[in-house]
Design a protein that fits this description.
With 276 residues, this protein is mostly helical. The chain contains 14 helices and no strands. The longest helix has 18 residues, at 87-104. The chain binds iron/sulfur cluster.
Length: 276
């Protein structure tokens, strides 16, 4: 039996290697409280974290409280978030979420999945990210919590043979069945890091990948399919682990301008960077 035949073993090995490779994997969006985190995650749909951080650097100075957003002029808010794309919907979701948080939750971003999912524009990915980063203790015990599945998690889960579906909601369910709960939060950021650094959408660099010997998709994708394994083996002696160490990870150099409040510190490991 190979590890791909045993998805739990495959997941355990993938997570173990990625933890070693990306010990500080975590959110890279800038925020200083749960509300700002929610705003940043809403803005991050179909947008890079770098662009979101550019937008929020200005946005969080212009609007400081939930009340500021709830009372904002929608057209003005649209202008402020326009660079993040889909600005009509994003601005409306932010404004309406602020209004609902004031009306229903006493001005505080709710700390349960069920309540988060009632907010405009908040689906499971956003709710998992907000709960896991803003309220880690609540995330750990919330019966509705799960695994945030973004485009990287979706793609890598399939390539690595962890899931069978290509639907994000089904992928979340499949991953929850094979990944220990303690790793649910971390898994998202490990796969995002590896998806950005090595296993990119169009040009996965299998020759530089520390998972190549256990990945069923290795050297089958992109323009280098079937070509770069020989080069990688010749260069590295065929040790995927050592090859992976040499990748040129495009790690974010963003330094949030805001101070991290004590509530926002993650219990999930070192917190050198923050964001979604
Ligand atoms: S071996 Fe290739 S397809 Fe598999 S995870 Fe690594 S880069 Fe992605």
């Amino acid at each position: 039996m190979t590890m791909v035949d045993d998805p739990k073993a495959q997941a355990a090995e993938v997570i173990s290697r990625l933890k070693s490779e990306y010990p500080e994997a975590g959110i890279v969006l800038g925020f200083s409280n749960p509300w700002e985190l929610l705003v940043a995650v809403i803005l991050s749909a179909q947008c890079t974290d770098k662009k979101v951080n550019e937008v929020t650097t200005k946005l969080f100075k212009k609007y400081r409280t939930v009340e500021d957003y709830a009372g904002a002029d929608l057209a003005e808010l649209e202008v402020a978030v326009r660079p993040a794309g889909f600005y009509h919907n994003k601005a409306r979701h932010i404004l309406e979420s602020a209004q609902q948080i004031l009306a229903d939750f006493g001005g505080e971003v709710p700390a349960t999945m069920a309540e988060l999912l009632t907010l405009p524009g908040v689906a499971r990915k956003t709710a998992n990210i907000v709960l896991g980063n803003a309220y880690p203790e609540a995330f750990a015990s919330d019966p509705d919590a799960g695994i945030a599945v973004d485009t990287h998690v979706n793609r890598l889960s399939q390539r690595l043979g962890l899931v069978e579906s290509d639907d994000s909601n089904k992928i979340e369910t499949e991953l929850m069945q094979i990944v220990p709960r303690d790793d649910w939060f971390r898994l998202t950021y490990l796969l995002i890091e590896h998806g950005r650094a090595v296993c990119t959408g169009q040009r996965p660099r299998c020759g530089d990948c520390l998972l190549q010997d256990i990945c069923p998709s290795a050297f089958t994708l992109g323009p280098a399919a079937g070509r770069d394994k020989a080069g990688a083996d010749a260069k590295t002696g065929g040790t995927a682990k050592s090859a992976g160490r040499g990748h040129e990870a495009p790690r974010s150099t963003f330094k949030p301008q805001t101070q991290v409040k004590s509530w926002a510190r993650s219990p999930h490991g070192k917190r050198g960077r923050r964001g979604g």
